[in-house]
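Hi, here's the filled form for the chain we discussed.

Project: internal
Contact: R.S.
Residues: 509
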Amino acid sequence: MPRQTSLRWNVAANYAGQIYAAVVNVVFLPVQVHLLGAEAYGLVGFFAVLSGWLMLLDVGLTPTVSRETAKFSAGALERPAYQELLRSLEILFFALGLMVALGVFGLSGPIARHWLHPEKLATSSVSNAVALMGLSFAFRWQATLSRSVLSGLERQVWINLVTAVFATLRSIGVLAVLKWVDSSPGAFFVYQSLVAALELVALRLSVRKFLGVKRGERSRFSFAAIRRVASFSLTIALTSTAWLFATQMDKLLLSKLLPLSEYAFFSLAVTAATGVNMLAGPIGQAVQPRLTYLFAERNDSAFALTYSNATQMLSATALTASFLLAIAARPVLWAWTGNAELARQAAPVLALYALGNGLLAVGAVTYYLQIAGGDLRLHLRGTLIFSAMLLPAVVLATLRAGMLGASVAWFVGNLIFFLGWIPLIHRRFLPGSHLRWLARDVMLPAAVGSIPILLFRQAPVLSLPRLQLALGLMLAAAISVCGAALMTRPARGFLVRLRRRPMPANSPR
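And the returned structure, exactly as it came back:
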């Protein structure tokens, strides 16, 4: 049976991997924009949106396989049944990935001619780039299945080693191609496809290693194995579809309405706001399989404690970071890009998307709670209601006020969902806990973390040189997160254990 890894080590590994990937992306993204040009980078932003929509093909299978892997790890699922499911999903993912690559290739011409609005790039160059997006997505999407297996096995340390290697190739290696080989968008996406293919191979080999699959051992494809998880998977799929429409429609609509150069500004602001998600992701990746494991063991006290600790960590990191990006949106964009006009125009978008992402990150812990319990009915209802309200609001706001209108709708929608629906989830799964959860686990760490940011914002920061401004922002962020972390149970427990650790006998006293 696969061994269980320390939750602290998994969270730490996830943060190390995410921070490294974020750093190389943030540092070298402006260089990519410079080498590609604003219009070509608009294609990179479109690829991110396209990838989000194509994830609908997942139909909830990757979170399902992570949950089934955690159950297998806990001894609640027999090895033959698990291997049969995994093999069936690998074949299904390969077939769908091939369909995606061929479909995007066939539609690349109409997308270039009738959807995107290049002003300087040739239509043929845009069409070739879109065709290559399908190939790159097909490889990346299949890799998500292997990541889900490794996540369910709680092998986050290994996942993040692989992530760091390929983040380096993806963000830094491409600069050599753009500078010395070819700076066209086609060359960019050819390189990204090759890196994605290598990453898929590395992850597949890792899955075989950690599952202990012997050479020549191969399970058969089974519709019965897929049907066994279909109900749970389709519930996730329906929820994800509704959520995707609500959260990605603004980006898709703006890719149609805005020139590629202006859409690039919007994409940069949204990319900066995803820093909040990067801080939340490591916690969710580690906590979701652990909650499933504890639920399968029926360890109620440890289950509730893990849930509370996860919320506190999300508040101290993701919510605090969202406050930083909102309060200091313009200085952050100026320090990052050096473009004063971009910082002026995109700052409101960054501020509102960051706040919305912060609420979404903290609220996501209720999703992990429901996945662990295997009951997503309440989550599905809430998402459908939320989407029914948010989707028309986003469309109308985008048509009326462009990217700023979409940003306002995004933030307000997430605020309503956070305040209105999460109490109902707690009433169903953890009755009597909501007010304590909101005050102790959410508001206390975030309130303490916001103090250094507010003090920093009072300084005349925009007059500083970029390097000094960036260092000041990093210092303020570090102080804020550390202050917020001291309000969390995991951090205080770590400090207590560190203080009580016995000193070596030969150490000086």
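Let me know if anything looks off before we file it.
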